[in-house]
């Protein structure tokens, strides 16, 4: 199966990174967002990331322009009609994702492959919302997409072998190192990572140590690139909370349950780095831990 034109739906934190790496790998990319304002914000995020690569001498400025030219932006899903592969990176909500895939099912050609970047929902549920379950896979990228090498390629009990192989080769063509994962909520990485991040919040609430010291402990003690609170702010507090609710609903194990503090932060709009405040105040340099 030949992939030439790729659609990316949702151009937030992850969609912008995915669109960037796909365009860098010389595919034509159509990005679809909810409205002009979000599309513009997504385009700016990609522009900034490419400019950063230029400043660091990792990309020629002429090549940045070529990559940007390969990207087009729309607020109409019909613009994805002739894509060979559509990757969704919209909000972590099964109803929104099912509605999207059901609409795309009626718009795209019968051969088109649909992929989800979900962190915790099951691909099977989305596949069942289409008339092409055999052509639906998971392509789970990691944040920040231009840097992180892993892609989890997820197959359901319905995914066709040739579709899975095409998705796996596609991830390799992006310069990533794919692994095969079964369609269980959290795949491999989040199954292990999410309880760790939630435990850190629970221990913080119990007064074990401060935000800063827990982060310092995990970076200096274990060599992790970021501590759990910096990472939570980086992933997005709203997204982490949704992931936690979904995984708790699936496994009914306490370690996936959303800690009350996490829910309160969502209520207050403290979504992490993307909103300016989470566990840290990101308007300060270095970011300053906030009172919780
Ligand atoms: N976009 C593009 N490039 C970026 C970037 C971004 N947002 N952030 C950093 N980089 C690049 C820098 O340009 C730099 O490149 P060079 O080495 O070539 O100069 C490199 O990454 C390192 O960046 P910095 O020196 O600025 O900072 P750092 O050393 O602290 O690294 C980091 C930044 C790569 C993000 C590192 O802190 C890290 O690996 N953090 C952990 C990230 C992680 O765990 N991600 C997974 C989240 S979970 C997930 O994604 C799954 C889910 O479903 C929730
Ligand atoms: P985000 O909030 O930064 O971006 C989501 C974007 O989708 C927003 O710009 C929103 O306007 C757009 N959107 C929502 N509904 C849409 C629709 N129907 N059509 C078009 N656009 C729509 O979220 P994110 O962090 O980029 O997460 C996106 C997906 O990627 C989620 O499923 C999340 O679980 C997953 N994911 C997130 C991370 C992470 O670290 N944040 C890592 C891996 C996977």
UniProtKB/TrEMBL annotation:
3-hydroxyacyl-CoA dehydrogenase C-terminal domain span: 186-282
Pfam hit, one: 3HCDH
Keyword Oxidoreductase: yes
Alphabetical GO biological process terms: fatty acid beta-oxidation
Domain 3-hydroxyacyl-CoA dehydrogenase NAD binding: 5-183
Listed InterPro entries: 3-OHacyl-CoA_DH, 3-OHacyl-CoA_DH_NAD-bd, 3HC_DH_C, 6-PGluconate_DH-like_C_sf, 6PGD_dom2, NAD(P)-bd_dom_sf
GO MF annotations in UniProt: 3-hydroxybutyryl-CoA dehydrogenase activity; NAD+ binding
Record key words, sorted: Oxidoreductase
Protein name per the record: 3-hydroxybutyryl-CoA dehydrogenase
Source species: marine metagenome
């Amino acid at each position: 199966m030949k992939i030439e034109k790729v659609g990316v739906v949702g151009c937030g934190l992850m969609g912008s990174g995915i669109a960037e790496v796909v365009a860098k790998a010389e595919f034509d990319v159509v990005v679809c967002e909810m409205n002009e304002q979000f599309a513009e914000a997504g385009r700016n995020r990609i522009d900034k990331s490419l400019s950063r690569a230029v400043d660091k001498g990792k990309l020629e400025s002429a090549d940045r322009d070529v990559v940007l030219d390969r990207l087009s932006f729309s607020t109409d899903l019909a613009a994805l009609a002739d894509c060979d592969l559509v990757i969704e990176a919209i909000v972590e909500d099964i109803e929104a994702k099912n509605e999207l895939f059901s609409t795309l099912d009626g718009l795209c050609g019968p051969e088109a492959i649909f992929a989800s970047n979900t962190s915790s929902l099951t691909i099977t549920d989305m596949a069942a919302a289409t008339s092409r379950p055999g052509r639906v896979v998971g392509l789970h990228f990691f944040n920040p997409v231009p840097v992180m090498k892993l892609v989890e390629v997820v197959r359901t009990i319905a995914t066709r072998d040739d579709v899975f192989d095409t998705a796996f080769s596609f991830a390799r063509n992006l310069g990533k190192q794919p692994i095969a994962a079964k369609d269980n909520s959290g795949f491999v990485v989040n199954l292990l990572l999410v309880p760790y991040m939630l435990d850190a919040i629970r221990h913080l609430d119990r007064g074990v140590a401060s935000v800063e010291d827990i982060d310092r402990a995990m970076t200096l003690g274990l060599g992790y690139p970021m501590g759990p609170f910096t990472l939570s702010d980086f992933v997005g507090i709203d997204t982490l909370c949704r992931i936690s609710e979904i995984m708790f609903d699936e496994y009914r194990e306490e370690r996936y349950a959303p800690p009350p503090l996490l829910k309160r932060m969502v209520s207050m709009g403290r979504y992490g780095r993307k909103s300016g405040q989470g566990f840290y105040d990101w308007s300060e340099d270095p970011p300053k831990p906030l009172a919780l």
